[in-house]
Amino acid sequence: MRKIYSVFVLLGIVLFSCGPSSEDYFKQAQAKLNNGAFKEANSLLDEAIKIDSSEPKYYLAKGASLFSLHEYNKALGCFDKALALDSTNYKPFFNIGNIHRVNNNPKAAFDAYTKAIQLNSEVSDIYLNRALSAVDLGENKQAIIDFNQAQVLNPKDLRVLYYKGKTQMALMQFKEAINSFDAYLNLDKTNPEVYYFLAGCKTALSGNADDEVCSLLKTAAEMGYPLAADDFSEHCQ
């Protein structure tokens, strides 16, 4: 009888050990996240956390799935938990900043991104998002500083060049904005808005719509940008 009991105990251990591990659930959740199946990912991450509630990356991933589901308060709780488990990782602060941006709280977002940068100063997206928060705060000069650093870290990021150029226009730094938009078009020639902004910068410097400006407006208009079509009709025909 003792031997039979021992066999059942051993069998139970084997069966228990054959169940999915927390990492198994996590990998399945990652696949779901990559495919945009956020609810399924969230459920799988709950299973991972049930098995191991001390792993910060599970909370980071769960926060990401909740963010994508627009459940921002719940996502914030997950990022706070990840931060409590590992205060050396910049990602919780970065994601907390993103939530504050979505919730139209640029000061809190700016501060969160600053904390993220203090932990990792080599991630271009942190500088980009902090720059956008600075723009929302009306701190355009600070935004340019951050755009510049983002560009150093990722020179081919079209978002950086686009928003940097727009911010330079707001500061009436038209020559600098032209450089930003030219750099954009060297990488991608499919955004009509950039041609339109470039035409605006050149007009601001020259005071008139010359042939180059009209060519830019025509290009933007042909790409379907209505403001460019209006300006082309008014100034170039």
UniProtKB/TrEMBL annotation:
Ranges of the TPR repeats in the UniProt entry: 56-89, 124-157
Coiled coil: none
Pfam families found in the cross-reference section: ANAPC3 (PF12895), TPR_16 (PF13432)
This protein's UniProt keywords: Repeat, TPR repeat
InterPro entries: TPR-like_helical_dom_sf, TPR_rpt, Ycf3
Protein's name in the database: Tetratricopeptide repeat protein
Organism (species): Sediminitomix flava
Lineage start: Bacteria, Pseudomonadati, Bacteroidota, Cytophagia, Cytophagales
